[in-house]
Specification:
The chain is α/β, with parallel strands linked by helices. It has one domain (4-240): Purple Acid Phosphatase, chain A, domain 2 (4-Layer Sandwich), CATH 3.60.21. It has six helices and 16 strands. The chain has helices spanning 4-12, 51-56, 66-81, 98-101, 104-115, 217-223, and strands at residues 16-21, 24-29, 34-36, 41-44, 85-89, 119-123, 138-140, 142-145, 148-151, 169-172, 177-183, 186-195, 199-201, 212-213, 229-233, 237-240. The strands form two sheets. Strands 8, 9, 10, 11, 12, 13, 14, 15 and 16 form a nine-stranded mixed beta sheet that branches. The chain has a seven-stranded mixed beta sheet with strand order 1-2-3-4-5-6-7. A hairpin with a 3-residue loop joins strand 12 and strand 13. Helix 3 (66-81) packs parallel to helix 5. The radius of gyration is 17 Å and the shape is globular. It starts with a helix and ends with a strand.
């Protein structure tokens, strides 16, 4: 678990922000990750490994360095929080053939990282309906922790499903939320967390991932249109009222 002084430092320097979500105390980090202290649990979402090499197949001149950079960023935040459990919230691999294009050194780094954590869980997404057999860790369609469902795309019938009787809210990937706003006289834009009463949308962590505006009807219909909070991040994380 993260050293207490390290967490205090991130909170006081606005690199992390504590929220209460469905009666759970959760930390949103300026790295674009979520940390749940009660369960020593760190969440990444939408890594999209090998998106660069996928696009390069279609004559896109984008550099094929995204996987390495994403892995480096993951290592940094893992070293900071030192979690006993990691959940990757879907679309970790950009497509079904991503592993065949992935540099062997990056595969080794990824597996070493997975094996360094006591419990590493891959939630399946629409881009990666299965995790390559070459990659360590466990995979599932969704995960339940306490009263929260962690899933790539939101479960619409959750309140009616007998299996989900204890679930009160969801932590969701998939949408890559981003926003643009004015704060303290300056225009700010970037990826963000979106927090509603029953749904928390994670930002995309991958290096080449774009985003969907928080003003888009898809996001509004998913999270609801009232009691919303937005947390824009970069060097710091800001609660946008």
């Amino acid at each position: 678990m993260i050293l207490e002084n390290g967490l205090i430092s991130r909170l006081t320097s606005q690199q992390a922000y504590i929220i209460n979500f469905a009666r759970n105390r959760i930390i949103l980090d300026a790295s674009g990750t979520l940390f749940w202290p009660t369960y020593d649990l760190l969440v990444f979402s939408d890594l999209h490994f090998e998106k660069g090499s996928f696009l390069s197949q279609f004559a896109n001149p984008i550099p094929r360095l995204d996987t390495q950079k994403t892995l480096n960023n993951m290592q940094n935040i893992l070293a900071l929080y030192q979690p006993s459990c990691v959940i990757c919230l879907g679309d970790s691999f950009h497509d079904g053939n991503a592993i065949s294009r992935m540099d062997l050194r990056n595969i080794e780094v990824l597996n070493s990282m997975v094996n360094s954590v006591l419990n590493w869980q891959w939630v399946l997404g629409n881009h990666d309906p299965e995790i390559p057999k070459e990659i360590a860790g466990l995979s599932s369609v969704n995960l339940t922790v306490n009263n929260l469902l962690l899933v790539h795309e939101p479960e619409e019938k959750i309140k009616k499903a007998q299996d989900y009787e204890s679930i009160e809210a969801q932590i969701v990937g998939h949408f890559h939320p981003k926003m643009r706003t004015k704060k303290v006289g300056h225009m700010m834009s970037g990826k963000c967390f979106v927090v509603g009463n029953e749904v928390l949308l994670m930002p995309a962590f991958g290096q080449y991932t774009g985003g969907l505006s928080i003003d888009h009807e898809v996001i509004k219909n998913t999270v609801g249109k009232t009691s919303l909070k937005y947390f824009l991040y970069g060097q710091k994380i800001f609660n946008i009222e």
